[in-house]
Write a structure and sequence with these properties.
about 140 residues; binds zinc ion
Length: about 140
C-alpha cells in the first residue's frame, strides 16, 4: 500500500502530506491525508475475507494506532534491561522520509531487498538511491 502511494498522482495529491515530516517524531505517523488514513485502515477489510476471531479484529484496531507512532518515534529499538526487545524500525523509515524512493516497507518483510529499494544508511546506499531516483525522474 505504501509503494502504491508513491505512484506520482497519489504521491502529489495524497502522500506528500505525510512526507512533509522530514525529521519524524511520533505524531508524524498520524500526519496523513484522509485518503491515506482510509487506505491505512483498509487492512481491517481482510477480516471480511478471512474468517477471524473478534479478538483478532480488536487487536488489529488497537495495533494500528500505536504502530504508526512507534515507527516514527525517533528510537530504533525498544530496550529492556539493555536487550533489544522490539525493533521499532525508526531509522529504516527515517531514511524513507529523507530519500523517498527507498525503504517503503518495514524491517520484518524483505520487499525492499527483493525489489532493490533497500537503503541501509550507508553512503553507498545513498548513492544507489539517488542514482535510481535520477533514472526514474529524468
Ligand atoms: Zn512515515
Ligand atoms: Zn512514503
Amino acid at each position: 500500500m505504501h509503494r502504491f502511494l508513491h505512484v506520482p498522482f497519489l504521491y502529489t495529491h495524497v502522500h506528500s502530506l505525510h512526507h512533509r515530516n522530514v525529521n519524524v517524531g511520533p505524531w508524524s505517523g498520524f500526519s496523513m491525508h484522509p485518503v491515506e488514513h482510509f487506505l491505512y485502515c483498509s487492512s481491517l477489510c481482510i477480516h471480511w475475507v478471512v474468517p477471524s476471531d473478534p479478538i483478532l479484529v480488536i487487536f488489529q484496531v488497537i495495533y494500528l494506532g500505536p504502530v504508526a507512532a512507534m515507527t516514527h518515534t525517533g528510537y530504533e529499538d525498544l530496550l529492556i534491561k539493555d536487550k533489544r526487545r522490539l525493533a521499532l524500525g525508526t531509522f529504516y523509515h527515517q531514511l524513507h522520509h529523507r530519500y523517498y524512493e527507498c525503504n517503503h516497507g518495514n524491517q520484518e518483510m524483505p520487499w525492499d531487498r527483493w525489489f532493490g529499494t533497500f537503503h541501509n544508511g550507508t553512503p553507498e546506499s545513498t548513492a544507489e538511491t539517488r542514482a535510481r531516483k535520477k533514472r526514474m525522474y529524468s
